[in-house]
Design a protein that fits this description.
This protein has 598 residues and is of the alpha+beta class. It is 25% helix and 34% strand. It contains 14 helices and 33 strands. It has an 8-stranded antiparallel sheet. Strands 2-3-1-4-5-6 form a 6-stranded mixed sheet, with helices on both faces. Strands 21, 22, 23, 24, 25 and 26 form a 6-stranded antiparallel sheet that branches. Strand 21 and strand 22 form a beta hairpin. Helix 1 crosses helix 6 and helix 12 packs antiparallel against helix 14. The radius of gyration is 27 Å and the shape is globular. About 1% of the residues have low confidence. The structure holds guanosine-5'-triphosphate. Guanosine-5'-triphosphate binds next to helix 1.
């Protein structure tokens, strides 16, 4: 297709504002799929994604659209909608010239609306504001228009839409043609194609999703990935409409995928540039950076015989996930396992769930932690991704932790509540501004380790669901951190060690010991629980010894009841690990995340 008839665009939105529903509608209206064969949210292909309703991996769909007697190729590039995947979002946007900014007519502009808008503006995209869900009784499109004006967009130009009822969809497509510029790019130049996604297919090897920026690519070409210098021969090419359709070439400005007998997505890094081996481009496209895990957790099989299967499962998942890292780790308490690195908590949960569901593994997972940069007295700098491996306090000069810059949009009534929460989490206040007369935006610098777990839930509950959050990494910052160990029966359980701020160590130690007392089932003997910093015990609790047989509760001959009780016990045991002579349930390893802040 000629460049002037191509449009590449994304849909960006705050979560739940209707991005997937609008995408479905665009696909349906352009006839890519009849409404009968249309499963809701065809862009989210993994089962898990559908269940959670979260788009994890970007994909592209080619729509064919007639406008004023001409035929256009519209490539809709899907972006993941979660803060864990900001880098993927930014690569997907780099492949576009325009973006539909979807705002819920009842909710208005939210934190991710703004964050996504800024990302899109950084990439110089044409923005088409869409006010969605105008069918809702609580819709207030006028108010949303004003909010759009406040953030520098022409709200009066916004397209009123009901993605659910199919209202306004044609106008959206017409605006894409009219307002999104066709791709620039040098059709005769050396090939430069941006990788914005890749996925592993067991028959074809890795499918690499690209946007051709300069030049063109055809089957049989020998390509080179500029970041890794690896070379492959293109065996197959295609586009999604949304079902895969084979093509034999992709020209300047076009979007599609190719296969080249590539065995692992590790070779096809999102953001890297593809060029031709015999006519390489001089420089890659800007902005590539390798995926960097931010959150680490220990993964241990409950049944140590499953260690090999766990390794195989992780290797398989890694074929399709360049951001997942893992290395073997041994824990005195849990035995042989792996320390795995993830982009964020959502990524971690998805991987853990897939390991259990798709690979039928039962795991003990340790509480997630961030990665610390530790400068030793000797001057040596070490990376610590496991709290148990933090060097002794005497050897440490400084510890630095990752911090984020967070923007929180809240009704002004809740500013006090939000500030209180941010302070509890060691936040440093940066700014307060008003979006309109009822809503404010607060910005804070916060330690990543303090917000990765329940910050968002807390924020929601303290603002009755009204506040929204977005954050970006903002480097490392020194902090007064110490390792807190937990001793059961007088023995340190390495998998329960955490890194906490010195000022909160006492409070956290007490709360954690209490929580563990609730979580660790009674044994036949008394189990003392101690929290300690170095050799100093800061809290102590005791799990009392078990007195009665659990079956004593069942009077007489009710056999089904008895069986049920035994099964329940077995179920409970499934996720236990014996540490020394104490049985510790999975929940205990996560207890640090659940200790109440006072
Ligand atoms: N009433 C109404 N509901 C809508 C409309 N568009 C979407 N919804 C509903 O809003 C909810 C969220 O829609 P999605 O399309 O899943 O939103 P999303 O932005 O893709 O969400 P994520 O993929 O989680 O980011 C769903 O329950 C939709 O049915 C609309 O025009 N009107």
């Amino acid at each position: 297709m000629e460049q002037r008839h191509i449009r590449n665009f994304s849909i960006i939105a705050h979560i739940d504002h209707g991005k997937s529903t609008l995408a479905d509608r665009l696909i349906e209206v352009t006839g890519a799929l009849s409404s009968r064969e249309m499963a809701p949210q065809v862009l989210d292909s993994m089962e898990l994604e559908r269940e959670r309703g979260i788009t994890i991996k970007a994909q592209a769909v080619r729509l064919v659209y007639q406008h004023q007697g001409e035929t256009y190729e519209l490539n809709l590039i899907d972006t993941p909608g979660h803060v864990d995947f900001t880098y993927e979002v930014s690569r997907a946007l780099q492949a576009c010239e325009g973006a539909l900014l979807v705002v819920d007519a009842a909710q208005g502009v939210e934190a991710q609306t703004l964050a996504n808008l800024y990302l899109a503006l950084e990439h110089d995209l044409a923005i088409i504001p869409i006010i969605n869900k105008i069918d809702l009784p609580s819709a207030d499109p006028e108010k949303v228009m004003e909010q759009l004006l406040d953030i520098g967009l022409d709200g009066t130009e916004a397209v009123p839409v009901s993605a659910k009822q199919g209202i306004g969809i044609d106008r959206v497509l017409a605006e894409v043609v009219e307002k999104v510029p066709p791709p620039a790019g040098d059709a005769r130049g050396a090939l430069r194609a941006l990788i914005f996604d890749s996925r592993f297919d067991s028959y074809k090897g890795v499918l690499v999703y690209i946007r051709v920026v300069d030049g063109s690519l055809k089957i049989g070409d020998r390509i080179r990935f500029m970041a890794t210098s690896k070379e492959f021969e293109v065996t197959e090419m295609g586009v999604f409409g949304p079902h895969p359709v084979p093509v034999d070439h992709l020209d300047t400005g076009e979007v599609g995928f190719f296969a080249a007998q590539i065995k692992t997505v590790q070779d096809t890094r999102v953001g890297d540039t593809v060029t031709l081996a015999d006519r390489p481009a001089e420089a890659p496209l800007p902005g590539y950076r390798p995926a960097q895990p931010m959150v680490y957790s220990g993964l241990y099989p409950v049944d140590s015989a499953d260690y090999g299967r766990l390794r195989e499962a992780l290797e398989k998942l890694q074929l399709n996930d360049a951001a997942l890292t893992f290395e073997p780790e041994t824990s005195a308490a849990l035995g042989f396992g792996f320390r795995a690195g993830f982009l964020g908590l959502l990524h971690m949960e998805v991987i853990q769930e897939r390991l259990e569901r798709e690979y039928d593994l039962t795991l003990i997972t340790t509480a997630p932690n961030v990665v610390y940069r530790v400068t030793l007295v000797s001057g040596e700098v070490v990376r610590v991704d496991n709290p148990a491996l933090l060097p002794p306090a005497g050897d440490i000069q400084t510890i630095e932790e990752p911090v984020v810059e967070a923007s929180i949009i809240t009704p002004s009534d809740y500013i006090g509540a939000v500030m209180e929460l941010a302070q509890e989490r060691r936040g440093i206040y940066l700014n307060l501004s008003y979006l309109d007369n009822v809503r404010a935006m607060l910005t804070y610098r916060l330690p990543l380790g303090e917000i990765m777990y329940d910050f968002f839930d807390q924020l929601k509950s303290r603002t009755r669901g009204y506040a929204s959050l977005d954050y970006q990494l903002a480097g490392l910052q020194p902090a007064d951190l110490v390792r807190m160990d937990i001793l059961l029966n007088g023995e340190v359980v390495d998998a329960l060690s955490t890194i906490v701020h010195r000022d909160r160590a006492y409070q956290k130690g007490r709360a954690l010991a209490e929580k563990l007392r609730e979580l660790i089932p009674r044994q036949l003997f008394e189990v003392p629980i101690q929290a300690a910093i170095g050799a100093r015990v800061i809290a102590r609790e005791t799990v009392k010894a078990l007195r009665k047989d659990v079956l004593a509760k069942c009077y007489g001959g009710d056999i089904t009841r008895k069986r049920k009780l035994l099964e329940k016990q077995k179920e409970g045991k499934r996720r236990m690990k014996s540490v020394g002579s104490v049985e510790i349930p999975q929940e205990a390893f996560m207890a640090i995340l659940r200790v109440e802040e006072s």
